[in-house]
Write a structure and sequence with these properties.
heterodimer; A: 487 residues; alpha/beta; 5-stranded parallel beta sheet; 20 helices; B: 1558 residues; 10-stranded mixed beta sheet; 8-stranded parallel beta sheet; 18% strand
Amino acid sequence: MGKPTGFLEFQRLSEAYAPVEERLKHYKEFVATLSDDDASKQGARCMDCGIPFCTNGCPVNNVIPDWNDLVFRGKWKEAIEVLHSTNNFPDFTGRICPAPCEAACTLNINIDAVGIKSIEHAIIDKAWESGWVVPQPPKTKTGKKVAIVGSGPAGLAAAQQLARVGHDVTVFEKSSRLGGLLRYGIPDFKMEKSHIDRRIAQMEAEGVTFRTKVCVGAKPATTGINDDAVEVISAEQLKSDFDAVLLAAGSEVPRDLPVPGRQLEGVHFALEFLVPQNKEVAGDNKNPISAAGKHVIVIGGGDTGSDCVGTSNRHGAASVTQFEVMPEPPKEENRPMTWPYWPIKLRTSSSHEEGCQREFAVSTKEFIGEHGKVKALRTVELEWKDGKPSEVPGSERVLPADLVLFAMGFTNPVASLLESFGVDKDGRGNAKATTDGDGCYATNVTKVFAAGDVRRGQSLVVWAIREGRQAAREVDTFLMGSSALPR
Amino acid sequence: MDLPLEQGLYDPANEHDACGVGFIAHIKGNRTHEIVLQGLEILKNLDHRGAVGADPLQGDGAGILIQIPDTLFREEMAKQGVKLPPVGDYGVGMVFLPKEHASRLACEEEIERAARAEGQVVLGWRDVPTDPTMPMSPTVKAKEPVIRQIFIGRGPDVMVTDALERKLYVIRRRAANAIGSLKLKHSKEFYTPSMSARTINYKGLLLADQVGQYYLDLQDPRCVSALSLVHQRFSTNTFPTWHLAHPFRYIAHNGEINTVRGNYNWMRAREKGTHSPLLGDDLQKLWPLIYPGQSDSASFDNALELLVMGGYSLAHAMMMMIPEAWESHTLMDPKRRAFYEYHAAMMEPWDGPAAVAFTDGRQIGATLDRNGLRPARYLVTDDDCVVMASESGVLPIPDEKIVKKWRLQPGKMFLIDMEQGRIIDDKELKESLAAAKPYQDWLSRINIKLDNCAEPASATAPECAASVLDRQQAFGYTQEDIKFILEPMAKSGEEANGSMGNDSPLAVLSAKNKPIYNYFRQLFAQVTNPPIDPIREQLVMSLVSFVGPRPNLLGINEINPPYRLEVTQPVLTFADMAKLREIARYTENKFRSAELDICYPLAWGKEGVEACLASLCAEAENAVLNGSNILIVSDRKVDALNVAIPALLATSAVHQHLVTKGLRTRTGLVVETGSARETHHFAVLAGFGAEAVHPYLALETLTELAKGDVETADKYVKHFIKGVGKGLMKVMSKMGISTFMSYTGAQIFEAIGLQKSLIDKYFTGTSSQVEGIGVFEVMEEAIRLHQQAFSADPVLANMLDAGGDYAYRVRGDEHMWTPDAIAKLQHSTRSGKYDTYKEYAKIINDQSKRHMTLRGLFDIKPAGSPVPLEEVEPVTEIVKRFATGAMSLGSISTEAHTTLAVAMNRIGGRSNTGEGGEDPKRFIPIAKPTMLSEIVGASRIERDLQLQAGDSLRSSIKQVASGRFGVTTEYLVNADQIQIKMAQGAKPGEGGQLPGHKVSEYIGFLRHSVPGVGLISPPPHHDIYSIEDLAQLIHDLKNTNPAADISVKLVSEVGVGTVAAGVAKAKADHVVIAGHDGGTGASPLSSIKYAGSPWELGLAETQQTLVLNRLRSRIRVQVDGQIKTGRDVVIGALLGADEFGFATAPLVVEGCIMMRKCHLNTCPVGVATQDPTLRKRFSGQPEYVVNYFFFVAEEVRELMAQLGVRKFEDLIGRADLLDMHTGIEHWKARGLDYSRIFHLPNVPADVPRIHTETQDHNLGKALDNQLIELAKPALERGEKVSFVVPVRNINRTVGAMLSGKFAAKYGHAGLPDDTVHIKLNGTAGQSFGAFLSRGLTLELVGEGNDYVGKGLSGGRIVVRPAPGFKCDTPSNIIIGNTVLYGATEGEAYFAGVGGERFAVRNSGATTVVEGVGDHGCEYMTGGTVVVLGMTGRNFAAGMSGGVAYVFDEDGTFESRCNMAQVALEPVEEEFAARQGSESGDELEAHGRVDVRHLGMADEALLKMLVERHATYTGSERAKSILADWAASRRKFVKVMPHEYRRALAEMAAQKQKELEAA
């Protein structure tokens, strides 16, 4: 177990970022992986707690103390084995996870948490470099066929798990490339897409079949932002062709802001901006929306908002302003009352560092246009009391805006998919299924399962992986009567 | 005269006894009535060593054994017309008979029939006259038997008295067996106290002073004897049993045989293998030798009798049964060693603390156990009388008449042969026995040592069909087994430590598959016998094991003794195993091994196990009958298709089968198993019969860990074996067992979660109180592991299961403390939100899905209809029942410790000092708002605390533990409750160690020790080796502070209820029952996991036993151990607790997050660390702790309201309101049965079930009342006083009450030296001068007993012989054992020799003595000891501080000194050289670093002390040493602990630095 006094000897070391002016020039990742030596020291800071709160804070329950210790001792190969035992894609989470584990880290009670994410990042990078990430095809095949709808992190995790126990897995994706929001939502400067590509290759070698540009169910009335489908397979067809179906199609319907001027040109959902950008970076067509020289307003203070900020800056926006409807959170949380849970606090992302004005407790009343194009917006300040906002009289302002991006989250999955299968929805419009006990992840429709955002609503990649893995076990149990897959 | 039936959790098998023993004998064999009267007098003066029960007229039994008073019987029988034959031609049987007429006649008829059948003559019967008017307790009277004597004359075939004795023996056994088989209801009342031609035994359930009154024979002047052997019993229970009184036929015993279960089994096992040339065919009539359910002493007597009847002399037999510690005794005469080694294979030691007095009517003697754990003092008079007793002063014998005063020494024997008319001392006795036969020659010929056999070529691991990983998984290995068990052992040779107790489920409740080992819990010694320190007292420990057949026990005429195979320790390597397999080759077929394969086809399923076990047993029996004498139980053939029966189950089944068949001693039993990997596994295997274990898979795993490096692998294996050996010694020693031989088969375990039918069949005689899984489920669990191992489970493909036992793992076993539980508890208490607390409580309480604890599966039934919450007792009242656990300042930080104290004082609860003293500054109440740092000093605080007016930092519970750290008189008088810690939940039966680097300036100050010097808490309290010792300590503490309640802390295990009953009889006011799972601080992992039982069991047993004994009313009961919520409190109350202790939960409230790193000093939240940087991070506040206890109490109230109970008191003992959850689905938990826990004792309604009265401590009778009166001028005005009073051995604890008064008034500083000078004439009772305060001098003219100067706190004690005593003081004993135990300050001068463990754990007193017994200066941490004569062995064991000067006249001292921690140095001539010079004592002048003890030159200090000794005691020895000082000085050896030297050097360097800086 680690170094008993490591946490007293070594400081937390964050991964280094390339300078802002440099990184704004491209869409590549700019985070430097820890050196072996640094990673070892960071691993030594782990105290191997009697109760590793981090493991509990981590949705996939990574056995963090174990691989921290292995990295401390330079046992990288063992470290990746342990890491892979709970997480199919540490290459994704090591880059883009907000790391709830670190919030739960025991050191976070009174000093700086162990840099868990940076260590994870180092482990998986080292593993790929060293050729330790190899396909693990099943020894025997079961002859059972499983269809997975959606190739986002939930679908991929489930596919990999199921393929490794010998099922014939086919993944259906409506876009031309695989990865779902991983590929199309997240900019390359956060995660380069080659990481997805080599995982796809690994999975293909493990026996997974991928079918792109296929829409499952029925074409939705309003087409999604990113729909390249050229073929539609009906729910009935899928059910009859496969022994089990897992819906992992995500939660794609974005939250709108129906205020006057919404119809103006230059007012977009974030993904209308980000998806084409990702396609452009991948070598497809140029992004029709450009932020170059524009005053950009991003409405919504979350991660997608940050991605819009970062992309706008790379376009060369004249200014970037981000609105958040909630009041500005404290810079430092009240740790005795929040630890080990995820605290509300002011988080400044790398995109914010690249240049962004942030406004809090602000609400947009109207978009003001000129020639059908947005030119400005009218805002009002909010005062929050007992969780309820009220407008501050006389606080209205008009801000110039040439490009407005809505990054206020997603409300629910595309309804047509669930309806075509006849899957019950919960109150929020998600596929209804539980996560614990008998029959979890199963929908009301026999042999149809649901996992990831399609079931739980919008969330983190790491939650998607968790659900994909857990659902795979349920599917396997459904098919075989029992399952050796871990939850 | 039977005990109450087994009911609920009470089991009569748990009875213990201990006591006072004594004898008087005339060396030349002159028979007088005087001797009988003196025997009775001794008995009366030992009265305080016995106990009385709920009724003061009900004692535990007493008796006297004398020679047959021929004249008395002859004349009395003549009146009936019976003419007795000459002396020696008839025997007398003393018989207890049923009152019921017909049954009595039946018994008498059987005896007569047996006598006739054996060809002897029944001469007649005599009613034994008793005094019907003597007041007797009704319960005793009810059980009073009809007492008659039968006179049996020799038949024509019997020529000599010895032969008649043998016949009488056979008659008695035959009659007893015959009467037993009649199975009459009343036949249990039949008992024969004695039947002999030489001795007769008058005993009964009588008080000590009643024996002579009850039996009229004893008053008769014709009743003459040359010996009286007497005994007064202190049983832990109070049930009237006439026959368990001592003496038995041959012995009277003070102590406890810890191994009796094993000894009993081995005696049974021998039945077929034993042949006696003397008893011949009669032998068969004697079996069964020992009846089940007898006391340990009775069983011992049975075995001794067999040996004596089989032809061994009494002394020889005693040496076989209680051998000296010969194994590692380098100084022992080789012949004597050979004697012991030869006999070791014949009989395992009857191990335990024992002073046994024995007689056959011609010889009388006594012997002491190998560790000297019981006191026995004797004196010889000039008119040929010898008086021996548990203490000195039992007979008023003028000093002028005494020619020798001495004591029995560990392992020594002393014998008076009245026919030869002389005393035979230990040396002569043993030399002659050792020389009687060529034991050495025999041994060199027949004793084959496995180590010495050449290694066969094929000594590598045999090939296995399955991979290491698969096999590891099949045997249930987890990653934690590697990380926490094997790796640390491989690397350091020691078992790893852990901390914060155990909060994972019992095996039977766990959703994980557990090895069967986990269902067994180690038993440990508490109160009735002491654990041993296997490290510091290693000289008594032995791991030697004999594998293979045992020689004929009664083979006294052996000329060609059979071969035996010895291993030095029981863990066998691959090479050892290869040798065993080919043993026939090494021994010319003298040994033949046979393998028993315990694997069977997986396809047979769990149902196959029963039949497989049956055929295994049959196979084993066959193999033995066919001449195999080493059986190897092996699971090596395990593979994907063949599953192994758990090796423990198979081993025990085979062992029990062979025992039952009487074949067990004809073979050795070796286990070859992949499952054994940690100490506990080896211990359980040995405990259930394995003589050696080959853990092949653990060894393979170690080899893998070494990654192919052969050298490393070798080292790992060696370390592992060493670690297991150490661990085994620890497990044995915690039960007080010192030899592996007697541990083997001793079954020192209780089972939790195993079905009784499984236990009865395969683990016969083991306790299992809550039922659980049966044999098929045991197999099912093994099969599940096996299937997982060979399954396609991807998680297990390349790695082991996570485990999660020692640290929380999401995929591991459950833990009570989950991340959410901790978070919710901390958030709720910090914010004061009760709702959040309820979320926490729900996580803990709701065990419907996660089965964790026994109580988790309880349901609570309402007592009536619900009552409004307002009507329920308020929170403020309930919290008064709460206490925090004993966590010392040392185990937790000053900040954490004081926060708890402040919080508990705010709510009116109690905090506990723990074992580490307390700063006197904390005793003063806070009058105005103050910072903590202002009180204890800023340098001693890292995070300050605001205190309010009315706060108090004083811990109202002061703990007294075995280390006695900081236990001063001042400390004791500042207590509301004084808690004697007999054991702690985390590691019952073990001591502790605070390494030197953790002993800060403050901790050193609090513990009266030197900073930087390591501190050891011994496993036992060295003044508590048995129940009467505990009574004595309670008495001592009560005297010192009569206002405080005395509490005794016990740990739950089977039988704890009986111990608690004993504790109540020992006059404790309060008893704590701690669960096995508690504990902060460092503790070996196996102790955390496997020792003790859940408090639900211990508490329920305690309540039941106390109520059954009518003792519950006298004592308050507290329960602790992982109590976390209001529900826990309510359940505790329903099971019988008045009060509740909390430790872990308040720590969590203070910020603890269950790091389990207490032992590493790296607690990141400043709770359990002494690191100043980390202590700054402490964030706890008293308010949080207050919130917590109020929340718990509020939850209690809500539950009470639901249950319809308004007063908390009405909950206590209402176990009838508890029920077991219905519909438990879990396949293992389903088999549990709680009915014994919920049992209500069957007693009349008026017997109190709660605490209602106070104990009568008899303080009014204390001599101190008189002393206090006489010392008034000093106490009140500080005036000097001196006076003279007489003293007797019944005056115990003289000076303690007086000292308490002084300490309360004047604090630890006391008064000027000698303000009060008291001279006492006579023999003082135990604990003379205990806790004597500064300014008081006790001058004892005469002699002292045990515990003189216990806890000396600044006073002065002088003990010198009476002027009439003419003997040489360095060769006569003047004080008893364990003198100056835990002394912190003061002086003591003893003109004579002290007993064992002189100055044990002394931390500051200065003393001079003229000789000491074994283990002198043990665990000493400070102070000065001068020994002007011989020392015993193991001097300075565990000594880390202070200095001893030993006058080593013959230069042999080094051989008796334990050199592990000390260096021996000459006393240099410094004083003379520098006397008079200006630089005087300043060593800097010599250019050396000053490492001087007390800042003085050795010579100056030593000479001063010898001079004082001469002045105070008039010692001739001191005077003669001083007369030629220059020569004498050179003979002194200075004993200097390494650590102490280092600490002194550091302090000197520090001082030097400060000087230079200034």
